[in-house]
Design brief:
about 280 residues; alpha/beta; six-stranded mixed beta sheet; 5 helices
Length: about 280
């Protein structure tokens, strides 16, 4: 091989090697996927069959990526004209005063359900160490001001669909037994729970139905069937998508719209659009 040919081949290999890094940094983190699927719900009223429920999770408003991407994604999401919208936690990254101001800018363009819009908190909404109650209350106040009904260890029914919302598993306010001890299995119930590890806690009181979670970001970078190097849960089966818990509960883990760090590989950011059906 001549020196000229060697340098040419080296340059080609360098470009090929750089592409995955460039793709995972500048392309995939901003390539949102609208995942559309059915959500069969027990005891669903006939009037809600065919209605849509949109799940948006893990905005992570902060300085780790350009949050204007969230606003752009919201504009695309509004085209689905959802009947219900649920936000499943981690609205900010660390909850600083600056992040709270930026969250207000983002939520001015928020997606709303025609019938109702609900939200729960995630661990990041409790500040840097997950224990800042003042920060969590500030986040809640901002969201309430923008018309998000926040569910903090409580339930609220809308048009025959009962939403049960937990505080975050890692927070000082994780008391789901308070709401689950009185849950009515004859209703059409959906649980909103940021951290899917809560599924393995003895808190469910015989609940059977859907649990909508986030938190994992799908690992952000993974090679399916080979490796998911970073997964912030104890149960490593809780990666993303639909999981049958084998006891009448079904778990869905949203891959997140935002990211803790601006890097994704084979784990596109997700907004989920469910079509409600009778189970």
């Amino acid at each position: 091989m001549t020196r000229k040919h060697f340098i040419k081949r080296l340059a080609q290999l360098s470009v090929i090697g750089a592409f995955p890094a460039l793709y995972s940094w500048q392309i995939e983190p901003f390539w949102v996927e609208f995942v559309q699927r059915k959500l069969p719900v027990k005891n669903l009223p006939e009037t809600l069959a065919g209605k849509t429920l949109m799940q948006i999770s893990d905005l992570h408003v902060g300085d780790r990526f350009d949050w204007n991407f969230l606003i752009d994604s919201f504009q695309k999401a509004k085209q689905f004209n959802p009947d219900f919208v649920v936000y499943t936690g981690d609205f900010v990254n660390h909850g600083t005063a600056e992040e709270q101001k930026d969250l207000e800018k983002v939520m001015k363009q928020a997606v709303y359900g025609k019938l109702a819009t609900f939200g729960i908190l995630g661990n990041h909404d409790y500040g840097k160490n997950w224990d800042d109650l003042e920060c969590s209350e500030n986040i809640c106040d901002i969201l309430k001001d923008f018309g998000i009904r926040m569910l903090k260890n409580r339930s609220e029914e809308s048009h025959g669909l009962n939403f049960i919302g937990f505080e975050d598993l890692w927070s000082p306010n994780f008391y789901p037994a308070e709401v689950m001890k009185n849950h009515d299995p004859s209703k059409a119930n959906i649980v909103l729970c940021h951290n899917p590890d809560a599924c393995d806690r003895d808190i469910w009181n015989g609940y059977q139905g859907w649990i909508l979670s986030g938190h994992t970001h799908g690992g952000q970078c993974r090679i399916p069937g080979v490796i998911t190097p970073i997964l912030p849960v104890e149960n490593k089966n809780y990666v993303s998508g639909e999981i049958d818990l084998q006891d009448g509960r079904m778990l869905y883990i949203n891959r997140a719209i935002g990211h803790s760090f601006q890097i994704r590989f084979m784990v596109r950011p997700e907004i989920t659009v469910f079509t409600l059906t009778k189970a």
